[in-house]
Every structure is written in C-alpha cells, then in structure tokens.
Amino acid sequence: MYEVFEHPQPEVNGQINFGVTIIYPGKVGKEYYLTRGHYHTKETAAELYIGLAGEGMMIMQTKDGQVSSLPIRAGDVVYVPPFWAHRTVNLGKEKLSFFFAYPSDGGHNYEIIRQRGFAKIVIEEKGRPKVVDNSARANLGWPSTHCECLATQVYY
Amino acid sequence: MYEVFEHPQPEVNGQINFGVTIIYPGKVGKEYYLTRGHYHTKETAAELYIGLAGEGMMIMQTKDGQVSSLPIRAGDVVYVPPFWAHRTVNLGKEKLSFFFAYPSDGGHNYEIIRQRGFAKIVIEEKGRPKVVDNSARANLGWPSTHCECLATQVYY
C-alpha cells in the first residue's frame, strides 16, 4: 500500500530524520489507501511534509479531540505541530509521494492509532473524497476544529 | 543578492523552522553570489536542504578545519550534520532556490564567518566554477576532507 525510503540519523537531539513516502493509489472498500499514522513518542516533536507528486490529504488529530485536514500535492508544505497525530491519504489515481522531516529523537507511536483508529476517515462518495466520522471508532462526535498546522508552498 | 522566506516556529525543542532561499545569479569579481553562511548557535543542530531550481553548491566547514562541498540542484537533498558551518553558492545563470529546515532552537551564528570568512570560496575560472582557498583568510591550507554530509535525491 505504501513504501518509506528513510535516511535515519543518530537519535540525538538536533538531528533530523528525513525521507520520502510513496502511497500507491487504491482503496479498501470505500476508504482510500493511507499510511498507518502516528503520534511522536516525544510528543513535542513536530513534522514537516512537502508534497512531491500526486493528490493527497493529511489528516490530523490530537488526544484531546481536535481534528484537522490539509491537502498535500506537489509543492505543498504541511507543518504538523507538536502533539498532533498525522496520517496521509492518497486521493488520486497516481502515486502520492511526499518528503518528510522530523527530529531524530522524536520517535513514532503507532500503537494508539492501531488500537483506536483515527476519528476521521476519508472515503470515496459519488467519485469524490469525503472526510467522515470513523464509525468503527467508539469515540465519535469530536469537534471539527482547525489546527495551527501550517500550509504553504515550496515555490516562490 | 539573496532573499529568505522563512516560516519561523516557536523557539522550542522539537519544532522545525523552514522556508525557501532564493539566490540571484551573479558575481562579485570572480566570486559567485552566495549566502552569508552560518554555524548554528546550538552547534548540535543539523540542517536539511532540498534544491528546487537552479544550479548551486553547498560549501561546508568545521571549526577544526574540515571542508567539504556538495552540489545542490532541483531534487537534491543535502543533509548538513551538526557542527558544520554551511553556505550556498549560485553557480548558474538562473535563480538558485532551495528549501531549508532546521531545529527551531538551533539559532544562527553568522559572526565567526563574518570575521574570518570561509576557508574556501567558489570562483569562475575559464567560464567554470572552481573551489579555491580563500586567500583573504589568514588560516589557509586546511585539509580538504570529505564530511558525512549526506547527499541524496528527493525523487524515487
């Protein structure tokens, strides 16, 4: 479903891990292919994404129930601030690829999301992507707030 | 000579400052236009660069006399590890633009380089760029070692 090409650095404060993720196009049922999603083990660690090719969406949430989403396409920069879990969805018919960078000592916590899922999922409805509540998840009805996740462009 | 479009984040461990630098094409005498160059105030902070457009070179050095250089063109990723000062040179006839990202609490120390210059400069000789000793600098003859600065590509 997806591949990660990472250049890990020493797990030392001040270093930055980086690489490229490719999510192939496709769906499981109505739900688009996506990454597993993670909080950082060190929750104060942010993460930076740059879209390289394809059409995607970053979906984000916090432990206290905030949710957000931003588009990620070629040239889009998405800054995921500390404390926000994040996963990436391929909404297109081609590969979605993006560059990522995060503090090397940030770590990944996949477990919470593996156990509880994300509050929102992205499904195809009438041929178009739609962000909906994750009905497989007990904890629904979280407020749909907007996070301070910064979206900008790499080209000036 | 150059412009920086930065998105600074809070100066807090775990956050990442990022942005885009554009260096215009041109020379002062034989020397190509370049950025001022800096060590990080917190010397354990690395920095990540991604070439967006144009033809350039990253030149790097350490306080104990190591020097290195790497090309930076569209799609090139250059990882400048902790303790390496770095500056970027536009070798082309067009704008050189690149994305940068570094720990928000890394800071910049421009002063050492302002006072002492870089060990190496890049000049045009017979129409081509050449890395030479900086004769304006007292401390010449540093060994031309190769650093662990990682060069890779953003496209897979």
Counted up, domains of chain A total 1
Oligomerization state: homodimer
| Average pLDDT for all residues of chain A | 89
CATH homologous superfamily of chain A?
Answer: Jelly Rolls
The largest interface is: A-B, 35 and 35 residues
Given the structure, what is the number of helices of chain A? 1
The structural class of chain A is mainly beta
Strand order of the largest sheet of chain A: 1-2-10-5-8-13
Structure characterization notes:
2 copies of one chain form a homodimer. By secondary structure, chain A is mainly beta. The first copy, chain A, has one domain (2-155): Jelly Rolls (Sandwich). Chain A is 4% helix and 47% strand. Chain A has one helix at 111-116; strands at residues 2-7, 16-23, 27-28, 31-32, 47-53, 55-61, 67-73, 76-80, 85-90, 96-103, 120-125, 128-133, 150-153. In chain A, the strands form 4 sheets. In chain A, strands 1-2-10-5-8-13 form a 6-stranded antiparallel β-sheet, with no helix packed on it. A 3-stranded antiparallel β-sheet of chain A has the order 7-6-9, with no helix packed on it. In chain A, strands 3-4 form a two-stranded antiparallel sheet. In chain A, a hairpin with a 5-residue loop joins strand 6 and strand 7 (67-73). Chain A starts with a strand and ends with a strand. Residues 138-144 of chain A have low confidence and may be disordered. At the A-B interface, strand 2, strand 5 and strand 10 of A face strand 2, strand 5 and strand 10 of B.
